[in-house]
Amino acid sequence: MISPEEEEYILREAYVPEHIVRLMVGISEGEPYLANGYVFFAKENWLIFIGYPVAREFKAEDFTATLQKTIKQFSPACTWFIAPEVPDSILAAARQRESDEYYKLDLHSYEAPKDLIRQIRKAGKNLEVEKSRKYTPDHATLTQEFLQREKPSAKVKELFLRIPQYVAHSQTSLLLNAWDRSKKLSAFYVVELAAHKFADYVVGCFSKENYAAHSSDLLFLEMINLAKENHKQYIHLGLGVNEGIRKFKRKWGGIPFLKYEFGELSDESKGPISWIKALEAKL
């Protein structure tokens, strides 16, 4: 269990979204722990290990030793881990592996591209932006439309479906909503503000049934302003995922800044793994 003092320490030093305890607990419902500078979450027969050490540089030997000790202590049926690299000893035992990069938008002296600002001003004439802590039936409807249209993987779908419980759990989460003149929801973002150094873009989606041009860009600019108002150094934009998402992040000035590796370790003798595999979307 993580104490309030430990959580505050983690938030001061956080540099990946998975360090944000209330975000991860809100989505996974796991119990948070801190051991040897590493944050991890456990419940029932699973474990999520965040291999980005708090307040110090990553060292492969240290990561391997702490991960192995934690697995021995909790004896999970399935362990998911993320880290900037995967040591050979762990890689040999991993059933899955995914590679990507984290993106961020540095807010120091940042100025949004002028062509985007012109487009957003036009969009703003037909849309009203709202900051809210309430996930409404309109958000649920838009989420379902988005999921049916985009047909994402099961893990991404599960992440979106768990947003209501996460928002209810985290008092530092915020919804940015774009409403059209008919009071219909055109797009929304979910942003997390708990980390001291950065604002975290959690998820976002837009409607084609209630389509409004540049609604996502309008909310992106609102997210930038929100981060600046809260004295954040940068916005953590998450993973690159695919070329379309990378292109959107790059057009705003987002850059890759940290390697990301995901892996899974399973002990099939201990029974079926839980739904938590859906968290690969966030990890």
What is the topological layout?
Blueprint: H1 4-13, H2 21-28, E1 31-35, E2 38-43, E3 46-50, H3 60-74, E4 78-83, H4 88-91, E5 96-106, H5 114-124, E6 127-132, H6 137-150, H7 154-161, H8 163-169, E7 173-180, E8 185-192, E9 198-206, H9 215-229, E10 234-239, H10 243-251, E11 255-266
Parallel strand pairs: 3-4, 9-10
Antiparallel strand pairs: 1-2, 2-3, 4-11, 5-10, 5-11, 6-7, 7-8, 8-9
Task: Give a structural overview.
- By secondary structure, this protein is of the alpha+beta class.
- The protein folds into two domains: 4-100 and 259-281, Aminopeptidase (3-Layer(aba) Sandwich), CATH 3.40.630; 105-257, Aminopeptidase, CATH 3.40.630.
- Helix content is 36%, strand content 29%.
- It has helices at 4-13, 21-28, 60-74, 88-91, 114-124, 137-150, 154-161, 163-169, 215-229, 243-251; strands at residues 31-35, 38-43, 46-50, 78-83, 96-106, 127-132, 173-180, 185-192, 198-206, 234-239, 255-266.
- Strand 3, helix 3 and strand 4 (78-83) form a beta-alpha-beta unit.
- The longest helix has 15 residues, at 60-74.
- It starts with a helix and ends in a 17-residue tail after the last strand.
Quickly describe the structure.
By secondary structure, the protein is an alpha+beta fold.
